[in-house]
Every structure is written in structure tokens, then in C-alpha cells.
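Throughout this chapter, every protein is written as a compact record of paired, labelled lines. An example of such a record is reproduced below:
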Amino acid sequence: MGLAAKTRTTLEMIKWEHSIFALPFALTAALLAAGGLPALPTLGWILVAMVTARSSAMAFNRWVDADLDAANPRTKTRAIPAGLLTRQFVLGFTVLTGLLFVLASAELNRLTLYLSPAVLLVLLGYSYMKRVTRWSHLVLGLALGLAPSAAWIAVRGSLDVRILVLTAAVTLWVGGFDVLYACQDFDHDRKVGLHSMPQSIGIPAAFWAARLMHLAMLGLLVWFARLFHFGVAGWLGIAAAALLLGYEHAIVSPKDLRRLNAAFFTMNGVIAMVFLCFVATDVWLRR
């Protein structure tokens, strides 16, 4: 396989385009922490840290789950089971991107450097959670939810407890849509003994669990808006997120999962970007 083809396969493996999920919330926190646009070097290293951390976590997940992916009809065409990338290459990519994440953390400030191993532990540890607990969805949520708190620390060099509300909101948002996504693997997970909310409580109940998580997420966003004294634009961002979440739940049901990919990939990216745009507008108007 040539370099260009290997690069394309690697980018497909880590689903680099899905960085759109957590990145807007990290940028939201960075804008609030700076009271506007952060210094460009800081913003640049935040982007490097976000991309490398997520790339390391995704590659590690593919490395850990290679045998499970090979046995699942939905995932058997992924890079390692299909023989497109070797386990050794994927593990090396995991280590390299993890080291680049630590480097980016060191370039931001001392606290981000000190916390970088703990962040990697959460990100990489998620890959084992579905082997031991039905609550693995919330661990994935936390992996993405750390992004706004990490970005705040990157800008300020310290943690403000108010940003933890956004971390909790993102955790529930991601956890909820991961519960929905796991419904696709209900039969496979039950067969091989993997844990998930759908496998544990059934698909209809899992849908209700996801709805409750997303309702709680919206409640946390309202609290977050009050803590940071959002103006009209910020509140409109929360309203837009609520409407989009409602649409996401309207296009899928326990009996019809055909549009699940649209709900999972397209709508969640839109929700994150819309929220960022409204909050950025709110920050700009208040300057």
C-alpha cells in the first residue's frame, strides 16, 4: 500500500472528521476563558492537543477491538480485520499521537502537562469498558466531556468549577447518543458477552435512557448559561440545540434504526457547531 493510500486508510480508521463532536465545545470553553479569541499560539496548541488525543484514542480502540470487529458483520471491514493496516502500525500510531498530545500539553502550560497522562488514561481506558460495565457509554462521554475543561485550563492555567457543568453536559450528550448507536450491535453484543445499555435493558428502555440523558444535558446547559450570564445569543444556542436534539430523536425509534447514522454523525456535528456559533456570537456581543 502506497503512502497516500495508507494515509487515507489511517484517517478513515480514526474517523478524523468526527473531531467535530468535541472540538466545538473545547473552543466554546476557550472563548469563555479568554473573554474572546485566545492567543493564536494557545489556540493552535489546543487544536493539536484535541486532534492528537482523539487520534490516539481511536487508534487504540481499533487495536484493542480488532478481534471483536472481525467477528461483527457491521465492523469486519475496518482496517485491521480487513488487513489494510497491521496491528503493529496501529499501535505505533497510537503511541506517536499520544506523545504528540503530551508535547502539545507541555506547550500550553504546566497544569495541562501534569494532567495529560490522566486524560490519556480516560481516553484509552474507554476501549476496555464495554467488557466490564453497561455504563461504558458514560466513560466515552467523559472522554469527550473533558475537552471543555481541558481547553479552559489551557487558556487560564487553572480550573474554574463552572466549566465542569459543560463537561457534565457533554458527557451526558455523548453518552446518550452512544447508547442509541449501540442499539445496532444488540445481537452481537449479547452473543459475545459485551456490555451496553441496549444489551442490558433492551432497546426500547435504552431509548428512554438516552432521552433522559439528553434532557439532563439540556438542563445542565441552562445552568451553564446562568453561571456565565449568557445573553440572548447564548440562550438561542441552547434553544437550537434542544430543537436539533428533538429532531435527532424523532428520526429514529426502537423499531426503526435505519436513520441512526444520520442522527449520530450528521446531527451531533450540527448541534456542536451551532452551539459554538451562538456562544461565540454572545461572547463577541458582550465585549
User: Anything to note?
Assistant: The chain has one domain: 9-285. The mean pLDDT is 90. The domain at 9-285 is CATH 1.10.357.140 (Tetracycline Repressor; domain 2).
